[in-house]
Write a structure and sequence with these properties.
- By secondary structure, this protein is mainly alpha-helical.
- It contains 12 helices and no strands.
- The chain starts with 6 loop residues before the first helix and ends with a helix.
- The relative contact order is 0.23.
- The N terminus is likely disordered.
């Protein structure tokens, strides 16, 4: 039985999921120069998988005969969600600005909505498309700091390409998660996806450490494990499990709208944790984004 059965809880999670994900931005920033990208992704998902496996173990044992059924689905989802959407974001953050990262990531909900409409046959009405448009405009307003002429100054660098790859990967992860049915509950399915992702990350993290290239070495200590644990519990296990349930209740297109709220949560957490100021354009963005989320999440009449 799904962990999420009441649509009202799904709407609540629509606002909670990006709050959990926003922690990843802080972890990525604090881990710069301390933890290598693939190692951080490996630690994050190994710990998250262990935590979730405690709760999913009885079901995994009971359904062990179904483990090999469509097992390649887990491998594909693990590669998309844990490897590319994990390590590639950390790699991209080394050479591109936060504004570019956020702006590129705004493409993902648009991609998800389009693919969901034409492939998954999720019918979105005029109200939902208006909500998507409002949320997109509000997010762009935030990431360009209210200065629309700044759009002309956006330039792609190597880091932008890494983030663009992660954006496309998240779109595919969201679509395949909805497209491919599973015999397992969301939590058990996530454990299997994580396990596949970890198996892919292990050799990549080893190669990264042996490469001797800049930013590929990890400094071991209590801060390293604390950051990995935070990434595992909040933007890892918590956010992905909530997102999987959110998709079941609202569909892939509406669940993808959680990305629109991330910059607002990041602004708040950055202010509280890093002392970065909150500006007027954040408030304007919130005024536009929040109604957009509401309209886009409404059930089509």
């Amino acid at each position: 039985m799904p962990l999420l059965s009441d649509r009202r809880w799904a709407v609540a999670l629509l606002f909670m999921v990006p709050a959990l994900w926003s922690v990843n931005y802080l972890v990525g920033r604090l881990a710069l120069g301390l933890i290598a990208p693939h190692m951080l992704a490996l630690m994050r998902w190994s710990l998250a998988g262990l935590v979730l496996a405690v709760f999913a173990w009885p079901e995994l044992v009971a359904k062990k005969s179904s483990l090999l059924k469509n097992s390649w689905h887990f491998v594909v989802l693990g590669g998309l969600g844990m490897w590319i959407c994990g390590a590639w974001v950390y790699i991209g953050a080394r050479s591109t600005s936060a504004t570019n990262i956020a702006l590129i990531y705004t493409l993902s909900p648009v991609f998800i909505a389009l693919v969901s409409t034409f492939w998954l046959r999720e019918r979105l009405g005029l109200t939902q498309w208006l909500g998507i448009a409002l949320a997109f405009v509000g997010l762009v307003h935030v990431v360009i700091r209210g200065q629309w002429v700044a759009l002309a100054d956006v330039r792609l660098v190597a880091g932008d390409l890494w983030i663009l790859g992660a954006t496309v990967s998240w779109t595919l992860y969201s679509i395949f998660l909805k497209r491919w049915p599973s015999d397992f509950s969301p939590i058990a399915r996530l454990v299997l996806i994580i396990s596949s992702g970890v198996l892919l990350l292990v050799p990549l993290a080893v190669l990264e450490a042996l490469s001797g290239l800049p930013m590929t070495q990890t400094i071991w200590g209590w801060k390293t494990f604390a950051l990995a644990l935070a990434a595992a519990l909040l933007p890892g296990a918590g956010a992905y499990l909530a997102y999987a349930n959110l998709q079941k209740a609202l569909g892939a297109a509406r669940a993808g709208l959680t990305l629109y709220l991330s910059p607002l949560y990041v602004a708040v957490t950055a202010f509280l944790v890093l002392g970065e100021p909150v500006y007027f354009y954040h408030l304007v963005g919130a005024v536009v984004i929040l109604p957009g989320i509401y309209l886009a999440s409404r059930t089509k009449q």
